[in-house]
Task: inverse folding
């Protein structure tokens, strides 16, 4: 059985998305795929009270894995577990739990995808560092580097090589804005290859992949829904704040697609202007209900109205705290990411490195 350890240098770089996309493609090509996230620092309780990693639950569903989430995320670190480990010692032999889970998750599989931690610092306090796990599995490691700026993308890739050493097999650059594509292609990739870092590709930034769903927004904002027939999976790609004159607002609204407009509940003229453009949601602040005309027009266009108690600035801050941190929690986004990796020939590069063939 082959294996690949997929990690990153900072949270929200896209490693879970890469695991999912690669897993789906491997399955489509006829391979039996296993998955394991050895250590999670993001505890989440299921409706029945089971403590697991939320991403793992989604991966299990999308890859149609048979194993229980407790197997796929054998060590979930909570505050109490950390405190106990530091004061009285580990509650269990965590390394054995991980080995046993890996054996179960990989049984009968052609390849086991191992999702490492969100940074190369993660896990040291528990004696389960990202670096030591990569070494223990003796699996080639791939780091997912999210672009922030020109020097950062180079520094992160080189730092990963320094920390992982010979364990690092390859790097995947993610979320590259159009203005940086030439620099990445002409400068960064050749520079990394000189340092013997294989680059599997540079995925361009796509607004659809950074979108947040109406359902997520409703939950984050604790919003009241004022319209009928809401589709929680509808994706919001951008936001506009309607705190200007009508003419200025309309000019801005026309340049943004699939947006949510944030404005006061008493700004009927702004709300109606937004509904004339590519708007997928109205977020009304200050707990001020809109006019019946606005509600009727929104329902006619199937645009949900979300009513929130906070003022506009507080609402914007709440959204900014989760924006660009959304996961591929919708099948539509996952399918788009798989297509993007295929278009950029990332699968071909990974398959070649692992000695796998495209079967279909």
Result:
């Amino acid at each position: 059985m082959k294996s690949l350890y997929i990690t990153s240098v900072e949270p929200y770089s896209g490693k879970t998305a890469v695991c999912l996309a690669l897993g789906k493609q491997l399955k489509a090509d006829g391979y039996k795929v296993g998955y394991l996230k050895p250590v999670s620092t993001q505890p989440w309780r299921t409706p029945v009270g089971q403590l697991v990693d939320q991403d793992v639950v989604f991966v299990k569903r999308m890859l149609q894995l048979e194993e229980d989430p407790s197997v796929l995320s054998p060590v979930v670190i909570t505050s109490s577990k950390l405190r106990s480990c530091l004061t009285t010692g580990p509650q269990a032999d965590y390394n054995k739990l991980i080995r046993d889970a890996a054996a179960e998750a990989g049984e009968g599989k052609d390849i086991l995808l191992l999702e490492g931690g969100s940074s190369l610092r993660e896990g040291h306090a528990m004696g389960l560092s990202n670096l030591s796990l990569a070494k223990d599995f003796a699996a080639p490691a791939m780091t997912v580097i999210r672009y922030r700026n020109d020097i950062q993308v180079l520094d992160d890739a080189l730092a990963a090589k320094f920390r992982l050493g010979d364990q690092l097999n390859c790097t995947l650059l993610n979320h590259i804005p159009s203005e940086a594509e030439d620099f990445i292609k002409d400068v960064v990739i050749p520079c990394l290859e000189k340092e013997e870092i294989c680059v599997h590709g540079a995925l361009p930034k796509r607004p659809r992949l950074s979108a947040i769903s109406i359902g997520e927004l409703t939950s984050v904002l604790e919003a009241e829904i004022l319209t009928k027939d809401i589709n929680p999976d509808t994706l919001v790609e951008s936001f506009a704040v309607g705190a200007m004159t009508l003419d200025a607002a309309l000019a801005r609204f026309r340049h943004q697609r699939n947006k949510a407009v944030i404005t006061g509940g008493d700004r009927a003229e702004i709300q109606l202007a937004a509904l004339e453009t590519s708007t997928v949601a109205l977020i009304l602040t200050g707990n001020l209900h809109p006019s019946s005309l606005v509600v009727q027009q929104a329902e006619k266009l199937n645009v949900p109205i979300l009513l929130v108690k906070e003022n506009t600035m507080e609402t914007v801050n709440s959204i900014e705290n989760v924006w660009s941190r959304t996961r591929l929690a919708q099948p539509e986004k996952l399918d788009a990411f798989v297509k993007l990796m295929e278009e950029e020939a990332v699968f071909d590069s990974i398959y070649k490195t692992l000695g796998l063939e495209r079967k279909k």
